[in-house]
């Protein structure tokens, strides 16, 4: 029994996780290189990635918030690995927050119009909707 314990410890020296100098639990994942973009080594360099992330973030404020979603998708490895690429991560996390806020506001607006409709807005409803533009301009021939 004593001999089998010493054989087990010789076969697997890292049975005790406290003795493992590598803090990662999976040695295969920790040995792979982390890239800033989803296309890995075919993607941008780190300097170009910072520039692209900054541009996507800033242009998202120019009424193009879908660029925030593109920023989060393209730089997904930066979001996954919290300590990798801190310059890029700043822009990508802000883009994720901005896109989440935009999505919440757009969903609230859409639900307000689809659920509330004419009962919620009353007589102003005819001025807010776009499906009666032809009637208002006299283009439908019904007026």
Task: Provide a descriptive summary of the structure in words.
The protein is mostly helical and 143 residues long. It has eight helices and no strands. It has helices at 2-11, 27-31, 46-60, 66-74, 76-80, 86-121, 125-128, 133-137. α3 (46-60) runs antiparallel to α4 (66-74), α3 packs parallel to α6 (86-121) and α4 packs antiparallel against α6 (86-121). 14% of the residues are buried. Residues 14-22 and 26-30 have low confidence and may be disordered.
At a glance:
This protein has 143 residues and is mainly alpha-helical.
Give the key terms.
8 helices; 62% helix; 143 residues; elongated; mainly alpha
Percent helix among the residues?
A: 55-70%
Any idea what the shape is? elongated
Order of helices and strands: HHHHHHHH
> Per DSSP, what share of the residues sits in E-state strands of 2 or more residues?
under 5%
Q: Structural class, please?
A: mainly alpha
Major sheet details: none
Distance N terminus to C terminus? 98 Å
Radius of gyration: 27 Å
Mean pLDDT: 77
> What are the segments in which pLDDT stays under 50 over at least 5 consecutive residues?
14-22, 26-30
* Strand segment count: 0
Please report the number of helical segments. 8
Summarize the topology.
Layout: H1 2-11, H2 27-31, H3 46-60, H4 66-74, H5 76-80, H6 86-121, H7 125-128, H8 133-137
Helix pairs in contact: 3-4, 3-6, 4-6
